[in-house]
């Protein structure tokens, strides 16, 4: 590599361009260099000079030192709800955001032990191997592992994070992609990123259950551009989501016959699932046939349209907690001061707040946050932090550091 700073990681530039949705030409104009120079930085043929690096860091809004950090092993290729080529740039951006979430989790893992991964293990190598019975069994096993029984899941986000999944929910500006998930090899745990652009708690819960289905059923499978294979995997994740959120025995037993939109609307708030998803679940269980399903959807469209249902405002989207509370814990215990989080992780305050669910301006000390509890005084600071850690589901060992 020719002149410039020492240790520049070209992969970080590639990642930054993707995360910000910038082209080489746009970045070059903003930094004040030629597109050819940016191309050389990306390929590793040349490193930026100190002044150019400062400009680059300011444009991307990361610490200059971040561009010298080695890139961890990439996550498995995530599956996306939309496989259209028109969404290629959007997928690249979201993959980069997921990699940044992995970076945050890796940095925090220097101080804490996240909950152990607690998901059913399946060894399918091809979606054609998976039957409807396999999907129902996996959903039932997941409920058993989490001690949920056959009741409605009160807070799916909390349950997923308690099972060791790193969950991110942020506004992406990409309404066509509701979420994505992948397995992190370096964390040895899965990550899920959900879009918060549509403030619909029912859809968000189903999206999360859908991603959970991918993580369990399709772990280790290659992402395919074949539309037929892609649809099969999407249908399987949908089936899992329905089976997990609406267990066959208890849900079907509550449904009146004949099935009507109004009778399902009565169940919507308690189960936390849309009427449309309930119709599909009843069809999957054989409670209603194709004609009945089609008629219900026609009536739904005529009465409510296709994008919304009555009662959608009755459930707010579930919030993520694990990464947010970990940072709050480390800050309140003095392990990692609030004003040192950004420098430690390397990303901007805003990116960290968005990816962890922290209040806006929390890391700059200007957030409007009301603390209702504080750590109890104790002779041992370790003991007090451990008590606090139990409340957020993390264990803080003080024999590790960075």
From TrEMBL:
Species assigned in the record: Pseudomonas amygdali pv. lachrymans (Pseudomonas syringae pv. lachrymans)
Family under the similarity heading: Belongs to the short-chain fatty acyl-CoA assimilation regulator (ScfR) family.
Keywords linked to the UniProt accession: DNA-binding
PROSITE patterns: HTH_CROC1 (PS50943)
Protein name per the record: Putative phage-related DNA-binding protein
All copies of domain HTH cro/C1-type, residue ranges: 13-67
Pfam families listed in its UniProt record: HTH_3, Peptidase_M78
GO terms, molecular function: DNA binding
